[in-house]
Amino acid sequence: MRVRIHRGTKEIGGSCIELEAGGERLLLDLGLPLDGDPEDVSVHPTIDGLDGQDSLRALVLSHGHLDHWGLAHLAGKELPVALGAATHRIFQAAAPFLPRAYVPENNLELRDRTPMSFGQFKVTPYLVDHSAYDAYALEVEANGKKLFYSGDFRAHGRKAALFEKLVANPPRNVDLLLMEGSTLGRLDADHKFPTEAEIETQFIDIFRATPGMALVAASAQNIDRMVSLYRACKRTGRTLVIDLYAAEVLRATGNANIPQSDWPNIAVYVPQYQRVRIKQTERFDLLEPHKANRIFAEDLKALAPKAAFLFRPAMLSDLDRAECLEGAVAVWSQWDGYLKQEKGMQVSEALNARGIRLEHAHTSGHASISDLKRLVGAINPRMLVPIHTFEPHRFPEHFGTVAQQKNDGDWWEIAA
């Protein structure tokens, strides 16, 4: 089996791996670089057969983060796309709200530890703990060789038991481990990230100390965070106010244990820009499943002292008109790096202009170095190749001589 990493040997984001065996090929992820434009052809990897007419058998998506699927629209309708069933439903739920939606038409469903075949390739998905819901690591077997691609994973989320299951019962006889190293160079080897339970406690402390509305800037697709946020609201007597997009994403999980729009301590507010879009697209059907706990602009001021509002900058004008920001605090509950980008700096400026203090409550979606080591120790691969990292040169100091660097675009054979 031959391997070519199109992007990821020296950067986080844009992950894309091409495999070849017996004249057939398989693609693992087709991601967008972190600062990339999906319409910019210079970031499009050169891959034959994306139209489904060549020897390319399928595209397998590890999870629903843009840096792993953001160029999947380049695949033609004929090419099979394998992804988690919940990931596919979340893509469908998000589509009406996004300018560049992606929903594969010829889709196949990944199921935890259930093998599926694509010509020469046998693929076995392993459900993992990650900040994206329904995320998988992927075992690929072909021509007597076995590759294990970690995708993105961690061991400190609400699904940490999945990591423990993986290290307790890992794939055996792995010739090549392609493992993410997002945290290398960003933290010390003995550093531990906060757990989602600890983030919940941070929310509780902030909510109890805040006299007004708590504006929480978090991704609605970070389902672990939505659970932490809901639990913190319930424990502090606050109502979690979500928008229609978040309500649809939560519904798309299909999980009865995930907070839903008709639960106690949840309210649905449809901001002006979403109301306009619904009217323009005549998607009034989107409102129907969420009418039980729907609130309106005139309700926000009275609710504010006991509300946590799932916040995006486009909602600020609604909140200004509702005059509900007295005593408010904002909580940044996503990667701090976004605040250093232009849009993030604009958010900070907008909050400062309103006298709203910015707190932080977040944990990484990626494994600590100690947990990376636990995975390598459990799998014991013959070769370890870094991917999804800015620091591939650090792998040997943590993982020994088994770690070997590769370059984007190069084909290489899995060693005998």
3D structure, described in words:
It is a single chain. By secondary structure, this protein is of the alpha/beta class. The chain has 2 domains: 2-188 and 365-413, Metallo-beta-lactamase, Chain A (4-Layer Sandwich); 196-360, Metallo-hydrolase/oxidoreductase (Rossmann fold), CATH 3.40.50. Helices cover 27% and strands 23% of the residues. It is built from 12 helices and 20 strands. The protein has helices at residues 66-69, 85-94, 160-168, 196-209, 223-236, 244-252, 272-281, 297-303, 316-322, 342-353, 369-379, 395-399; strands at 2-7, 16-21, 24-30, 56-60, 81-84, 107-110, 116-118, 121-128, 135-142, 145-149, 176-180, 214-217, 239-242, 266-269, 294-295, 307-310, 329-332, 357-360, 383-387, 411-413. The strands form 3 sheets. The protein has a 7-stranded mixed sheet. Strands 15-14-13-16-12-17-18 form a 7-stranded parallel sheet, sandwiched between helices. A 6-stranded mixed sheet has the order 7-8-9-10-11-19. A hairpin with a 2-residue loop joins strand 9 and strand 10. Helix 4 (196-209) packs across helix 5 and helix 8 crosses helix 9. It is globular. The termini are close together. The mean pLDDT is 96.
Summarize the structure.
This protein is an alpha/beta fold and 416 residues long.
Helix amount:
25-40%
What is the CATH H-level superfamily of the largest domain? Answer: Ribonuclease Z/Hydroxyacylglutathione hydrolase-like
Identify the CATH architecture of the largest domain. Answer: 4-Layer Sandwich
The largest β sheet comes out as: 7 strands, mixed
Q: Estimate what percentage of residues fall within beta strands.
A: 15-25%
